[in-house]
């Protein structure tokens, strides 16, 4: 498929796809971090955070699939190897074993802030490309993280 088949200009879509692939790579690192937090959380907040981390990684998995499918819709292949995810991601892996629950939350807040920043950049690029479909999708992802950032910051008294 080609971007022109959905009324978009190929040269304007290339930067969109490049940034979507970078976002996809970062989401994979974020997703795995959430899984690690879910598996390894301990302490008085276990029941609360275990459920919240599962909610967040489930949403991240859906986002990953939507990103990959949007990249394909735009006529390009999505990254699909861990080598690509690790080399392209600006988010870094962390070892969640033994990590304090509040430190886990703070790590997720940092990831979300970085992802929101990437998404804001993509919104500018999609606007220039006239790519309303990608813009709407990314805006929805960003709104979810904005709300959850507020909730997580409140949890660790950083609001």
UniProtKB/TrEMBL annotation:
Source organism superkingdom: Bacteria
Domain (Ferritin/DPS) ranges: 18-157
Protein name: DNA starvation/stationary phase protection protein
InterPro entries the UniProt entry points to: DPS_DNA-bd, DPS_DNA-bd_CS, Ferritin-like, Ferritin-like_SF, Ferritin_DPS_dom
Classification via CDD domains: DPS
Family statement: Belongs to the Dps family.
One Pfam family cited in the UniProt record for this chain: Ferritin
Source organism per UniProt: Mucilaginibacter pankratovii
């Amino acid at each position: 498929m080609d971007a022109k088949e959905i009324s978009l200009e190929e040269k304007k879509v290339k930067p969109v796809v490049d940034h979507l692939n970078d976002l996809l790579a970062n989401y994979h690192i974020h997703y795995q971090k959430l899984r690690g937090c879910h598996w390894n959380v301990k302490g008085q907040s276990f029941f609360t955070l275990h459920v919240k981390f599962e909610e967040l990684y489930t949403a991240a998995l859906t986002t990953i699939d939507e990103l990959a499918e949007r990249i394909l819709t735009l006529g390009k292949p999505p990254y699909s190897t861990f080598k690509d995810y690790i080399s392209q991601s600006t988010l870094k892996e962390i070892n969640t074993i033994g990590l304090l629950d509040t430190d886990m939350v703070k790590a997720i807040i940092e990831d979300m802030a970085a992802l929101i920043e990437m998404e804001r950049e993509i919104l500018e690029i999609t606007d220039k490309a006239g790519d309303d479909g990608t813009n709407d999708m990314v805006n929805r992802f960003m709104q979810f993280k904005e709300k959850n950032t507020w909730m997580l910051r409140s949890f660790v008294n950083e609001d």
